[in-house]
């Protein structure tokens, strides 16, 4: 399967918008996928690999009580990571990954539990839960693929909504 990275970057560039990434379990793979595309620097601002829970709190601004109460593998943590990286790196869109790649469960969540999130202009917030199978490499790779597809879908949906609003509704 081909990567959605070129399409995501084309969509962002066509809109004159930028992207920032917050990664945990993917450890920089999302950023690597995006920067493998020539010209990515036109819209990719950068990334924060917040592998340690304390970095999610201290760098990305994820609520400490949320992290203490639910752990790092949580849909609201994913949303706060996406919003946080968007704010910290000054991007129009922020995306994030948090989850359990294995080999052991974490925060009471089984291996293969992943949350991906998108935060964008106009209050756009989307989170998805993935239940993935396979080893660490498979889980991480599928997390990257799923996140880029989620963002591409949001960019497409957001563009259709803007077109409808600009053309008077319906």
Bin the strand percentage: 15-25%
Distance between the termini: 35 Å
Structural class: alpha/beta
Q: Largest beta sheet: what is the strand line-up? A: 2-1-3-4-5
Structure description:
- With about 170 residues, the chain is of the alpha/beta class.
- The protein has a single domain (about 5-165), classed as Alpha-Beta Complex (Maf protein).
- It is built from six helices and five strands; from the N terminus they run αβαβαααβββα.
- It has a five-stranded mixed sheet, with helices on both faces.
- Helix 1 (about 5-15) runs parallel beside helix 6 (about 135-165).
- It starts with a helix and ends with a helix.
- Residues about 165-170 have low confidence and may be disordered.
In short:
Helices cover 45% and strands 19% of the residues.
How are the secondary structure elements laid out?
Blueprint: H1 5-15, E1 19-23, H2 29-35, E2 44-49, H3 53-58, H4 64-70, H5 75-89, E3 93-99, E4 113-119, E5 125-131, H6 136-166
Parallel strand pairs: 1-2, 1-3
Antiparallel strand pairs: 3-4, 4-5
Keywords:
170 residues, alpha/beta, Maf protein, 5-stranded mixed beta sheet, 19% strand, globular, disordered C terminus
